[in-house]
Structures are given as C-alpha cells and as structure tokens.
Design a protein that fits this description.
362 residues, mainly alpha, Tyrosyl-Transfer RNA Synthetase, 3-stranded parallel beta sheet, two-stranded parallel ribbon, 5 strands, elongated, binds adenosine-5'-triphosphate, binds magnesium ion
Length: 362
C-alpha cells in the first residue's frame, strides 16, 4: 500500500511556533525522508469559514500567509502538493455521504469541538457547518487515502472520528476507504504548546502567539513578556517549572548544543531547571537564553520567507497547480466511493440492463 500523508492548517492567521513544533517541522522532515509516496498539505479555508462565516475577508487574506509560512519552513512544491480546500469540491460531496454514517450525539461527544464551541461562545447557536467539521475532516483525510496524519494533540478526536467513518463505510459498502494513523510529536512539550500568556494552547484565535514571520525584535519582546512562575519574585526565590511557559518552550526547542553556545555554565536543561527550582536563577537570564534558541530556529525561516515574498505570483501558481493535482486525486476516490455505494447509475451497465429486461417482459 502507498504511504500517503495528508494534513493542513486553517487560514485564520499567520502560522506560529505552536504549529511549527506541533506539526510543521515534522512535515518537512517526513517530506525530506523520502519515505512517503505522496504528501498533500491543505490550506483549510472551507473549514475556517465554519466559524468565520461573517468574515470571509480574513480567510481570503490569510491563504497567502499560510502558503508563505509553509514554503519558508521548507515545504517543497516539487515533493509536496500544497492546495486550497475549497478548490476541491469533491470533498463536500464525500462529506454529504459520510454525514449519514455519524450521529448527532457522536459529534456532541467530541472533546475538541466541545472546547472550541465554548471558546467561541457558540453555546446557544452553533453553526451546523462548525458542528460537523469533524466529518469534513474525515473527507479531507480519506479523499487522499492518507495513511499518516501528522498533527497536534488537539486533532486526536478528529482522527478517531475519521477511523469510525472509514470502518462504518467499509462495513456497509465494501472495502473502499483507508484507515489513517495519527502521527503526534515525540516531544511531550510539542503536543500542545501553550500561549505566551500561559494559556493551555497557543492559538491564532486567542492572540497569544509567537508567529514564524515576526521580526527578531518582536520575538524578543514577546519572550521577555512571557508567563513564568508568578510566585518567583526575587532571584533568590525557589521557582516552579510546572506550568512555567518559558521552561515548556525550552523543553520544545532547546538542545544540549544550545547550552554550549549560549549558556555554557550549564550542560543541559535538567541542570538549568534544578538551579531554578533551588532558587538563585532569575527569569531574565532564562528568557534571554530562550530568545537565543528561538532566534536561531526562526532566522532561516524568516530569510526564506523574504525570498518568496518577492514572487507572490509564483506562490499563487504553486497553489493553483497543487489544487489541480489534489482535485484529480479526490475525484478518483469519490468515483470509487460512489461505485461502492452503487450510486454511479450511468456506469452501472447491469442496472440499466436489468431495468430494460424488467420493462421489456411486461
Ligand atoms: P484556530 O485558532 O483558527 O483554530 P490554530 O492556531 O488552532 O488556529 P489550526 O489551523 O487549527 O491552528 O491547527 C493546525 C495544526 O497545528 C493542527 O495540526 C494542530 O494540531 C496544530 N497546532 C495548533 N496549535 C498548536 C499548538 N499550540 N501546539 C501544537 N500544535 C498545534
Ligand atoms: Mg485550531
């Protein structure tokens, strides 16, 4: 069986370091590993509209931003198909059929959708499209026969839902769809990177992000303002590591090499943590170290972005070509789905012959 990757992002803003450690960095590694037969990366504009129906301009403006972020992180259009979800109408058609395989109560149990409904104050009036977006995600994944979906932890319930739809579909209509596997980051801190305000998740919608495209000074300011341990007031105070965002970011980003380069008095993060916990280590010193680590990671990304920004027409061309490739693949799967459901009437010679016979014998 072919090894196929499908994943994507909502164009609700520029991409941030949470996306980077949660999924983007891994995608580039997988792309360059050469182990995958096909890689599809989707800019999920149709999904973004499910909770931004009254603000289509926001989505329209951010498609190019997400595309630039992809390319600047090292996604290569020669190896990876980058496409725009709404340009593949087959995905809607698949969703329409999958909807019959899912109950309302099953959707209501989805913990990610539950918390997102709360976050968006949708409790009293949930848009139907938003409520059903896990089904639309199942269409995105299955349309490309994806075997591997590299995403952050918040996507676990979506993958579960997709697997259920695949099993149900195959059981009812015969073996057609492929069951995907989720690929979560190995590093625990990357599963759900918190915001700079210490909130559970860095998220475009919460405005607590460090963006990949921000300049060095903006990143530095954000790092210096980050949430730490509110009870660690004097340098001599013992400090807490748990829930301390600066240390979570160090868990996500730093290596022993960084210590050699920027903080040689410690060998590794464990030593730095131990000092902080004992007392005698100030937040400013830790933040300055984190800033050096982040700048080193972000600098080449910023430089590549500047290059692509000079040729926006070319970036749109990449998206157009990618959308055509994606559409052809989705159309193939949709044809198989309709054949399995026996709703491909005009290709079904047996059905037509049977009915001709039935009426000729009357
Ligand atoms: P929105 O607020 O519009 O939902 P978002 O910041 O949550 O935006 P998405 O486009 O929904 O971003 O997510 C894209 C991908 O990035 C998903 O795979 C998701 O799991 C991952 N991701 C998003 N935020 C984080 C985070 N803070 N830590 C790790 N992974 C993340
Ligand atoms: Mg999200």
């Amino acid at each position: 069986m072919e090894k196929i990757i499908l994943t994507g992002d909502r164009p609700t803003g520029k991409l941030h370091v949470g996306h980077y450690v949660g999924s983007l960095k891994r995608r580039v590694q997988l792309q360059n590993s050469g182990e995958y037969d096909k890689i599809f990366i989707m800019i999920a504009d149709a999904q973004a509209l499910t909770d931004n129906a009254d603000n289509p301009e926001k989505i329209r403006q951010n498609i190019i931003e997400v595309a630039l972020d992809y390319l600047s992180c090292g996604l290569d259009p020669e190896k990876t198909t980058i496409f725009i979800q709404s340009q593949v109408p087959e995905l809607c058609e698949l969703s329409f059929y999958y909807m019959n395989l899912v109950t309302v109560s099953r959707l209501q149990r989805n913990p990610t959708v539950k918390s997102e409904i709360q976050m968006r104050n949708f409790e009293t009036s949930i848009p139907v499209g938003f409520f059903t977006y896990p089904i639309s995600q199942a269409s995105d994944i299955t349309a490309f026969k994806a075997t591997t979906v590299p995403v952050g932890e918040d996507q676990l319930p979506m993958l579960e839902q997709t697997k259920e739809i695949v099993r149900r579909f195959n059981a009812v209509y015969g073996e057609t769809l492929v069951e995907p596997e989720i690929l979560l980051p190995d590093n625990k801190a990357c599963l759900r990177l918190p915001g700079i305000d210490g909130k559970a998740k860095m998220s475009k919608s919460l405005g607590n992000c460090i963006y990949l495209s921000e300049d060095a000074e903006e990143v530095r300011k954000k790092v210096m303002s980050m949430y730490t341990d509110p009870e660690h007031i004097k340098v001599s105070d013992p400090g807490k590591i748990e829930g301390n965002t600066v240390f979570t970011y160090l868990d996500a980003f730093c290596t022993d090499e960084h210590f050699k380069k920027y903080l040689p008095e410690y060998n590794n993060l464990d030593e730095l943590k131990a000092h902080y916990q004992r007392g005698g280590l100030g937040d400013v010193k830790v933040k300055k170290f984190l800033n050096s680590v982040l700048q080193e990671e972000l600098e080449p990304i910023r430089a590549r972005r500047k290059e692509y920004e000079k040729d926006i027409a070319y970036v749109y061309e990449i998206l157009k070509k990618g959308s055509e490739v994606a559409q052809a693949k989705a159309a193939q799967t949709l044809a198989e789905v309709k054949a399995a459901m026996k709703i491909n009437y005009f290709e079904d010679k047996d059905l037509i012959a049977e009915h001709i016979k039935k009426y000729s014998e009357k």
